[in-house]
From TrEMBL:
Gene3D superfamilies tied to this protein: Aldehyde Dehydrogenase, Chain A, domain 1 (3.40.605.10), Aldehyde Dehydrogenase, Chain A, domain 2 (3.40.309.10)
Organism: Blastopirellula marina DSM 3645
Name of this chain's protein: Ethanolamine utilization protein EutE
PANTHER family, sorted: ALDEHYDE DEHYDROGENASE-RELATED
GO MF term list: acetaldehyde dehydrogenase (acetylating) activity
Domain Aldehyde dehydrogenase: 39-427
Amino acid sequence: MQIDESLIRSVVAQVLAEVGQAPAATSGFTGRRGIFDCAHEAVHAAREAFERLSERTIADRKQVIDIIRQIAMDQKVELGTMEMNETQIGRLSHKIEKLETLGKMTPGVEFLESKVYSGDHGLAIIEHAPFGVIGCITPVTHSLPTITGNAINMIAGGNTLVVNPHPGGKLVAAEGVRRYNEAIFRALGIDNLICVIAEPTLETADIIFHHRDVAMICVTGGPAVARAALNSGKKAVVAGPGNPPVVVDETADLDRAARCIIQGGSYDNNLLCIAEKEVFVVNSVFDDLMKAMERAGAVRLNSAEIDRLTRVAISEVEVNGKKKLVAAKDFIGKDAAVLAKAAGKTINSQVELIFGETDEHNPFVPVEQMMPFIPFVRCHDVNEAIEKAKFYEHGFRHTAIIHSNNVRNMTRMGRAMDTTLFVKNGPCMASLGLGGEGYISFSIATPTGEGVTTPLTFTRERRCSLIDDLCILGHPSKS
Ligand code: NAD
């Protein structure tokens, strides 16, 4: 389905234009449906919405979340198509699936379990209170999906949010937020629980980072924004970059490993931060794994083709006076067929992943490429494979994967990597409950350590103590 960008722009403009005429029945910001040009106004509106949400029950929060879930699931095709048309990266079917998955599987108010300590000296209850307004930065790789997951988590915890989306995904961000707020307002009479900056810039991000009424921030993105958040002076939940390595040892089920590497490494054309980015394989099974990859539908490039692709798909930039290799923008999230063409090879457009043998010094190994080309590096033994995996994960402590049936090797790699997610014998997404156990979020907090974020990530613990009463067990002699 082709969605006209100008239509989205005009809807956003219309909402902004209507502001002047919006009835100021409940607040000066009611009627904005969360869409703001001015970051200060967005924070004020989110603060007002927070105060209104604080007067409501947990059942009301659940109703808000159910509305967001329903829209994400029911309108996934339209919104996913908008995201694809605007960002021009990834794969349409996965854009659609991501919205459905986040709508269905993001944890909600059920995560807010209180803890109770009861004993001879009475009762202490630990409950989870909101922070207030949360400032969010979201990536172009998953613009509306990240906002959807963040909104469900944060509102479940009783918070409201102001989002500075990536400029490359700002239209779908605004349109999704408008739809969520519209439906929430109709059902509960509260507007602006989710606010979004219609024209996001580094300046608007900076205002949000330092605004007095923003209680905490949650950023999802690469190294620059992770650093900016850590330097903001506010409590920050940082879902930072990764470069997930895969190790395949001599005990692995090679056909299963190949299928998993293709499934995870090609999902949304490798835009997932948890996606398989480079593979270290024990020499004795290297050639068999390469054949298994071809049997499973991936297409192998030869070394001349890999060289051609590397020259155009990885570029050199200067960051703070230092030269750095990065993925070239024109190739991030593009189809395998587009990469293959740049390598000088014509392949079927249905092919999900291309791959090939490189040494560890090929830039595709150290660079978080976010493209469906995966380099395979031959290693003498599993120790060398784990050592290289650790080195090229760069200490992000994000995600690592092993295919093995040797529990000692799994244990050794798990200990060595020390990553937030460690997957054994599955594709990366199994660690987020997609084919494995657990729950999902698209903000996986790595340097700040909260892991896969949940409503509890966005709450403060509060303790309520009653001394010497209401513990109804036993018969203390002097009561
Ligand atoms: P990006 O770093 O280019 O942008 C992310 C967001 O940060 C955007 O909104 C951008 O406008 C903003 N930004 C960048 N520099 C900033 C600064 N100095 N101050 C304030 N805001 C700034 O990343 P991207 O291409 O949009 O997304 C891909 C990156 O995000 C990858 O590195 C990927 O690993 C990471 N990511 C991590 C997770 C996770 O859960 N850990 C999830 C998704 C993506």
